[in-house]
């Protein structure tokens, strides 16, 4: 692994090809029960270019009312599907946190999708890290510091990579500038999936 900053640890090729194929199939199964939907910005209702779904007890959603975690899909009203075992295993191995994740956001990027610089602060538990797993096309990932104006660095996140943001890196600004094609043939139609494993509620 490579420590990029205090609390920010990068694991290139964490998932081998077989694990990536297994996780991709698990995500396909999840999207049958909990379809990808287009989130909207609070207040303005402007659509995200990234489509999303979730698995696990809680899911992150965004609509004109705001950002929040909730136990049901915003369009079907159904509970989120269970987390794949592979994702739970990654959390156990990488997080160093003494309880399982209670939310897993799944982001799907088509070629023109991006995610602006933001902080993840809708969780109640900031002592838990966020663990990210990437599948499919390479993404140009940008991260900075705790202040939006802090200088930023960029790295490429490739299919099978894991990256963990904990401790002093948990609240840093980060985003996806763009996809880069030709890095992986995992997704036959191209695009990128990112799973972020999270602990939203403090353990009892
Ligand atoms: C740093 N996702 O879902 S993954 C997100 O690739 C998100 O889809 C991006 O930002 C994606 O919120 C980036 C890397 C990542 C995920 C969560 C973080 C970096 C993070 C939480 C805190 C700090
Ligand atoms: Fe984020």
Automatic annotation (TrEMBL):
InterPro entries given in the database record: Alkb, AlkB-like, AlkB-like_sf, Oxoglu/Fe-dep_dioxygenase_dom
An example Gene Ontology molecular-function term: oxidative RNA demethylase activity
PROSITE patterns: FE2OG_OXY
Keywords from the named record: Dioxygenase, Iron, Metal-binding, Oxidoreductase
UniProt: substrate binding residues: 60, 67-69, 122, 148
GO-annotated cellular components: cytoplasm
Residue ranges constituting the Fe2OG dioxygenase domain according to the UniProt record: 100-201
GO terms (BP aspect): oxidative RNA demethylation
Cofactor comment text: Binds 1 Fe(2+) ion per subunit.
Record bears the keyword Iron: yes
CC cofactor: Fe(2+)
Annotated residues for binding of Fe cation: 118, 120, 174
A Pfam cross-reference name: 2OG-FeII_Oxy_2
Amino acids binding 2-oxoglutarate: 107-109, 192-198
PANTHER family: ALKYLATED DNA REPAIR PROTEIN ALKB-RELATED (PTHR16557), NUCLEIC ACID DIOXYGENASE ALKBH1 (PTHR16557:SF2)
Protein name: Alkylated DNA repair dioxygenase
Organism the protein comes from: Microvirga aerophila
């Amino acid at each position: 692994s490579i420590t990029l900053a205090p609390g920010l640890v990068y694991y290139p090729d964490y998932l081998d090809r077989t694990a990536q194929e297994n996780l991709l199939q698990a995500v396909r199964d999840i999207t049958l029960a909990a379809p990808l939907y287009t989130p909207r910005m609070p207040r303005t209702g402007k659509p995200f270019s990234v489509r999303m779904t979730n698995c696990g007890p809680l899911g992150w959603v965004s609509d004109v009312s705001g950002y929040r975690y909730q136990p049901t899909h915003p369009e079907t009203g159904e509970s989120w599907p269970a987390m794949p075992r592979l994702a739970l295993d990654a959390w156990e191995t990488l997080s160093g946190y003494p309880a399982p994740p209670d939310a897993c956001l799944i982001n799907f990027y088509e070629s023109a999708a991006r995610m602006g610089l933001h902080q993840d602060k809708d969780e109640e538990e900031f002592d838990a890290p966020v663990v990210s797993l990437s599948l499919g096309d390479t993404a140009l990932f940008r991260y900075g510091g705790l202040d939006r104006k802090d200088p930023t660095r960029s790295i490429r996140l490739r299919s099978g990579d894991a990256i963990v943001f904990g401790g002093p890196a948990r609240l840093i600004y980060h985003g996806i500038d763009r996809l880069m094609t030709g890095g992986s043939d995992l997704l036959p139609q191209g695009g990128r999936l990112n799973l972020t494993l999270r602990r939203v509620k403090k353990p009892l």
